[in-house]
Design a protein that fits this description.
GO biological process, one term: formaldehyde catabolic process
Radius of gyration: 20 Å
Strand content: 25-35%
Largest sheet: 7 strands, mixed
Number of helices: 11
Cofactor: Zn(2+)
CATH class of the largest domain: Alpha Beta
Order of helices and strands: EEEHEEEHEEEEHHEHEHEHEHEHEHEHE
Oligomer: single chain
Helix content: 25-40%
CATH superfamily of the largest domain: Medium-chain alcohol dehydrogenases, catalytic domain
Distance between the termini: 23 Å
Keywords: Metal-binding, NAD, Oxidoreductase, Zinc
EC number: 1.1.1.306
Number of domains: 2
GO cellular component, one term: cytosol
Length: 364
């Protein structure tokens, strides 16, 4: 039998979000209904609201979530009722060309629920990243549920579902930061600060945080940055020179752009040592372009690596980082800046845009 819950939707491009009644259908054979406990306010949800990702309105927003499995479909074997899970948007299929060549982190055919959640009038909703967790309950594929330690704080570990895992993975997985290497992170919002924390966890000897805001730079130091550069009012070359001055004139082994705009991308590109790795984890908008002379791309060598979801494997990474958090070795809880209610999502977007938080987390 279907059930009706409260959820937050974006009805049209740029319109303020609304809390409305959402109809959850009976789960399909491999579907799961999850009772949501927490959901982080992520920039991706704002991008959905503003029409920067696709035009499939109305959207059921929210995706960075943790909760309890409440109902399961007849063929579900991956989880059971009562399991504590973090939701993920990479439910590896095991059958696509990426999976078959041993690269499931690039799975091109990830699973989603087989049925649509709707408004009470029958209008189908598009769940953000296939999840839709700014709601009391949501419907997902069983593969989107990753079991973690049930004693962990849902507000903290739920953040592994997107932004924090994206930044952390950009350093550890995509950037492959090694013991003793140098790293520069451009942009110290939630994702960039997670990249700083990931570089610290990986054993980087020098971690340079670059941002326009002194408060964000101070926070980056709390997560492991050894040096900071306030780039406000500085030219591109001045920022690059500042990074090089901190790295014996050579540049960093790894540079991570956590903003996704041409100025920070260029700063990261030219701040690398020869053969250094550039990681792009900040998501550009649909119209941005990058202007780099081809000879510079060739002449500097190294690699340019976009980080998709931090190149994570949820079944491997979520339990591992939850365990590190529980052991006091990775500070997931420090990313939770404030805890808000379901009706406060629009305010959470404004706070995020103002750069006042690492993460606002909706608690239900």
């Amino acid at each position: 039998m279907s059930e009706t819950v409260q959820g937050v939707i974006a009805r049209s491009k740029g319109a303020e979000v609304e809390t409305v009644s959402v109809v959850i259908p009976d789960p399909g054979a491999n579907d799961v209904i999850v009772k949501i406990q927490t959901c982080g306010v992520c920039h991706t949800d704002l991008a959905y609201r503003d029409g920067d990702i696709e035009d499939a309105f109305p959207f059921l927003l929210g995706h960075e979530a943790a909760g309890i499995v409440e109902r399961v479909g007849d063929a579900v074997t991956h989880v059971e009722v009562g399991d504590f899970v973090v939701l993920n948007w990479r439910a590896v299929c095991g059958e696509c060309r990426a999976c078959k060549k041993g690269e499931p982190k690039y799975c091109f055919n990830t699973h989603n629920a087989s049925k649509k959640m709707t408004l009470e009038d029958g209008t189908e909703l598009t769940p953000a990243l296939g999840i839709g967790a700014f709601a009391e309950k949501t419907l997902v594929h069983e593969g989107q549920c990753t079991k973690v330690d049930p004693s962990a704080d849902p507000a903290a570990v739920g953040l592994l579902g997107c932004g924090i895992m994206a930044g952390l993975g950009a350093a550890v997985n995509t950037g492959d930061v090694q013991l003793g290497e140098s790293v520069a992170v451009f942009g110290c919002g939630g994702v960039g600060t997670a990249a700083v924390a990931g570089a610290h966890l990986a054993g980087a000897a020098k971690i340079i945080a670059v941002d326009l805001d002194d408060e964000k730079l101070a926070t980056a130091k709390e997560f492991g940055a050894t040096h900071t550069i306030n780039s406000k009012g500085k030219s591109e070359q001045e920022v690059i020179d500042a990074v090089r001055e901190l790295t014996d004139g050579f540049g960093t082994d790894v540079a991570i752009d956590a903003v996704g705009i041409q100025p920070t991308w260029r700063q990261a590109f030219y701040s690398r040592d020869f053969a250094g790795r550039l990681v792009m984890v900040g998501v550009p908008n649909l119209t941005d372009h990058i202007d780099i002379p081809a000879i510079d791309v060739y002449g500097r060598g190294g690699s340019i690596r976009p980080a998709w979801y931090g190149d994570c494997l949820p079944e491997r990474d979520f339990p591992a980082y939850t365990a590190l958090f529980q052991a006091g070795k990775f500070p997931l809880d420090k990313f939770v800046s404030e805890r808000i209610g379901l009706d406060d999502v629009e305010e959470g977007f404004a706070t995020m845009k103002a750069g006042k938080v690492l993460r606002s987390v909706v608690e239900l």
